[in-house]
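thought: fold this chain, then report.
action: predict
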Amino acid sequence: MRILHTSDWHIGRTFHGTSTMDALAEVLAALTRQVREHSVDVVIVAGDVFDSATPSAAAYTLLGDALVSLHETGARVIVTSGNHDSAARLGFQARLLRDGIHVLTDPLAIGTPVTVADADGPVHFFGIPYLEPAIVRQHWPDGDSDGRQLRTQAQTMAHAMQLVREGMRARQGRTVAIAHCFADGVDATAGLEREVRQGGLDVVPLSVFDGPDYVALGHIHGRQQLSDRVRYAGAPLHYSFGEQHKERGSWLVDLDGTGLAGVEWLCLPVPRRLVTLTGTIDEILSAERVAAHANDWVAAVYTDAMPQSEPMRRLREKFPYCAMVQHQPTVTAAAEERSYARRLRDAVSDADRIEAFLEHVRAGHGATEHERELIREVLDDRVRAEALV
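observation:
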């Protein structure tokens, strides 16, 4: 059986105030072509289908179009809810969808799989929706198998996976689990979800996912391989500049008669590249850089000593898709403080001390020649006044 593992579509999310709907539609169309070209049997969407618990009408339309297109390839589609989704709103569509599209949002149905058969027998897909302990513990008032209350993400996910393993024992065949959480072992530089907390309460140990032949995870926006069996596919679009160097795509998973046979990464197109340009404002606006990045999303980090006038306006004249600008002088504040303290210590005259102060508050630019003349006059007047006392 051939499975395509994707996640974190975040339909409706904006990028620095700009809609991503058209770009996402383009990418999902490419994903659908991959499903057809690679004869995929089952497509998994591991949570965060929408970016909001109250999606717009356009977001529902995009989701419907994408699911119908995937279904028309002949593949089955299995969708679970994530922390951004409203499980109730996403699950409301489940009964309205055509045969072959499954939306799994009910915590009480975790132990009941969607079963898809191939020439080697059945494959059982257990979908675990995002489980917020404070919300879902009402479903299991007696706690886990040891009678402990489900207070953390790790405890709740461990209980859910116990339900999956009970379902596995009751059925013959291969197994795939789908979940949306922050698993131990994730590289924190891979593009973390906005609400991910890295404290111990929300980290799910990798051992929790023992058992299934493959575990399709969502929640992290960069692809991750935690083991041969446990992986994150990441988001199909770049949703922040921190993700710009991470490939976008999905995992193509092959199961044979005995279990996991192979996993291959399929890249997705990037509708508009993201780039961070660093240097002085003149360096960033150089003809060479403009020619290379005029059509890219640009984050500009200019290093001029002094803040520039209307930097965003100037940048957007050359880079229409400049999304953010930051001023980061080459000289750090700490280094400048040390330099200022040293200059004050070494100053011989009041004029030296004033010059050091002006350079400090003006990011390295001291007094102008006219200002130096005024300073000399003021200091000379003070000396004369003191001499008359």
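thought: worth noting. Residues 274-327 form one domain.
final: tokens above.
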